[in-house]
Design goal:
By secondary structure, this protein is of the alpha+beta class. The protein is built from five helices and 18 strands. It has a four-stranded antiparallel beta sheet with strand order 1-16-3-11, with no helix packed on it. It has a four-stranded antiparallel beta sheet with strand order 7-6-5-9, with helices on one face. A hairpin with a 2-residue loop joins strand 14 and strand 15. Helix 4 packs antiparallel against helix 5. It starts with 10 loop residues before the first helix and ends in a 7-residue tail after the last helix.
């Protein structure tokens, strides 16, 4: 077991907090840190450790967008629009089904042959980083024909679920209109468009200086998160890890116990302590 990339503290720091000097429980402590870090990320609805993120954001015709994982360290590209990148079709008429899906890190081809045999082929963007190499890879899979329409990075392709290519060609698209006139609020993770050389009309309304109002219409690649995790997050991780470690041998179903005239009650094990919630509240993303 090893610490995950999103770990909010280290084994050494948590052991210091717990007053532990022996290494007997190091593997257990790693597991607890990883689990607690995941729980905090899920509750706050964001990532914290600095990394490169690729996001499609629904702009809603606004001038300002918020990224999922602030603060912003740097921005590589902001793009929108739609341009055909690869056209895909089925080339085995007897097949019962042939579909193409574009997922977060790959293109997935799903085919059902005439005898009912189903085959799934995953082509990762890491292995095929350009639409040229990806087109060649798709065309090499039995049952599919692919033609490149434009050169683009594979990671920018618009995401989609399985699309039928038995009855029609499917055009895999990407955002070809790279925005250049925008400002960045690095600390709050905001992008603000200043102007747009190509104002668009949506339902009869001319949108000057607005990001397009469409579902997941704006692609952003940026570096975000914290190179050094804020103290409040570390303290919250300490508290939750401590509770998990010290309570590992306790009966979590027991709420109270009485021995003669002495009795005590335990806190609700399903609820995080209020002081931990207060530490995390400023970092929680509210959609």
């Amino acid at each position: 077991m090893a610490l995950a990339a999103n770990a909010l503290t280290t084994v050494a720091d948590l052991k210091t907090y717990l007053g532990i000097t022996a290494s007997t429980d190091d593997t257990l402590i790693e597991t607890i840190i990883n689990n607690v870090s995941d729980q905090i990320e899920r509750w706050c609805d964001r990532k914290f450790v600095a990394s490169t993120f690729k996001e499609y954001i629904t702009a809603r015709g606004d001038r300002t967008l918020a990224v999922d994982n602030p603060p912003i360290i740097s921005v590589d590209v902001v793009a929108f629009g739609t341009q055909d990148a690869i056209r895909v079709s089925s080339n085995v008429s007897a097949d019962l089904m042939a579909t193409v899906a574009v997922e977060e890190t790959q293109v997935r081809l799903y085919r059902v042959a005439s005898n009912g045999t189903a085959t799934t082929t995953n082509l990762t963007f890491a292995d095929y980083p350009t639409t040229g190499t990806l087109t060649t890879a798709i065309a090499a899979v039995t049952g599919y024909t692919a033609t490149k329409q434009a050169d683009a990075p594979s990671f920018m392709l618009h995401r989609s679920g399985g699309r039928d290519v038995k009855t029609t060609d499917y055009a895999i698209t990407y955002p070809d209109d790279a925005e250049s006139d925008y400002r960045v609020d690095y600390e709050r993770g905001l992008l603000h468009i200043k102007s747009d050389a190509f104002p668009r009309t949506v339902e009869g309304t001319l949108l000057h200086h607005r990001f397009p109002n469409q579902f997941e219409s704006v692609f952003i690649q940026y570096s975000g998160g914290y190179s050094t995790i804020p103290n409040a997050l570390v303290q919250a991780a300490f508290e939750l890890c401590s509770d998990a470690y010290q309570g590992r041998d306790k009966d979590r179903s027991m709420q109270s116990e009485s021995i003669g005239d002495y009795s005590y009650s335990l806190a609700d094990p399903a609820a995080w302590p209020e002081h931990v919630m207060q530490l995390l509240a400023p970092f929680r993303r509210i959609r």
